[in-house]
Write a structure and sequence with these properties.
The complex is a heterodimer of chains A (about 120) and B (about 120). Chain A is an all-beta fold. In chain A, about 0% of the residues lie in helices and about 50% in strands. Chain A has strands at about 5, 10-15, 20, 25, 30-40, 45-50, 55-60, 65-70, 75-80, 85-95, 105, 110-115. In chain A, β5 (about 30-40) and β6 form a beta hairpin. The radius of gyration of chain A is 14 Å and the shape is globular. The termini of chain A are far apart. With about 120 residues, chain B is mostly beta strands. In chain B, the strands form three sheets. In chain B, strands 2, 4, 5, 6, 9, 12 and 13 form a seven-stranded mixed sheet that branches. In chain B, strands 1-3-8-7 form a four-stranded antiparallel sheet, with no helix packed on it. The chains are: A mainly beta (about 120), B mainly beta (about 120). Chains A and B meet through β5, β6 and β11 of A and β4, β5, β9, β11 and β12 of B.
């Protein structure tokens, strides 16, 4: 069974400072990893994904994530936080071996609060 | 915007009733997944449809059922509603080609269901 852990319910960071939102995962095969963001009363918006290749993945709105296979982690990062980045962030994983069946497992989410 | 639309946006039902939620996929997408997101939780996979057939299912009872139509739009039906069914229901569309699922799922804004 695949699973995702987001150990922090909330992360607070000052505007302009770098931010990190943590994620660890567990899958039986090679992982496909994703980050999504959710604003209040909205659906999830895709930020970035790791499928294969470079361990540093760049995504939307200046976000990036670092894949670390030995630590089974996929932390989301941004060099300089904006107040508008305040939202709920979800990490998700899918086993690459599941072929056409696209069951994606989400973490419980981390609320990011950027303080002006 | 993702191009995935869901209706209605809000719905109030009473215990024991039945409900149908609708989803219109992003143009060109042939796969639809449904998720349940309870308050304060991450989305939980309900099932996925590809070519009008259920392609995978999460840990949800049979009273959760779905349909996918030739135009790839989809419905989620829930019978015998229970209080715990109160949640945000999210639809996500994606593209599957040649037996492999393209990995990015695009989400609608969701339908918030309240069961009284």
């Amino acid at each position: 069974a695949q699973s995702v852990a987001q150990p922090e319910d909330q992360v607070n960071v000052a505007e302009g400072n770098p931010l990190t939102v943590k994620c660890t995962y567990s899958v039986s095969g090679n992982p496909y990893l994703f980050w999504y963001v959710q604003y209040p009363n909205r659906g999830l918006q895709f930020l970035l994904k790791y499928i294969t290749g470079d361990n540093l993945v760049k995504g939307s709105y200046g976000f990036e994530a670092e894949f670390n296979k030995s630590q089974t982690s996929f932390h989301l990062k941004k060099p300089s936080a904006l107040v508008s980045d305040s939202a709920l962030y979800f990490c998700a994983v899918r086993d690459s071996g599941s072929g056409g069946y696209q069951k994606v497992t989400f973490g419980t989410g981390t609320k990011l609060q950027v303080i002006p | 915007e993702t191009g995935v639309t869901q209706s209605p946006t809000h719905l109030i039902k009473t215990r024991g009733q039945q409900v149908t939620l609708r989803c219109s996929s992003q143009s060109g997408h042939n796969t639809v997944s449904w998720y349940q997101q309870a308050l304060g939780q991450g989305p939980q996979f309900i099932f996925q449809y590809y070519r009008e057939e259920e392609n995978g299912r999460g840990n949800f009872p049979p009273r959760f059922s779905g349909l996918q139509f030739p135009n790839y739009s989809s419905e989620l039906n829930v019978n015998a509603l229970e209080l715990d069914d109160s949640a945000l229901y999210l639809c996500a569309s994606s593209l599957r080609q040649g037996g492999l699922a393209k990995n990015i799922q695009y989400f609608g804004a969701g339908t918030r269901l309240s069961v009284l």
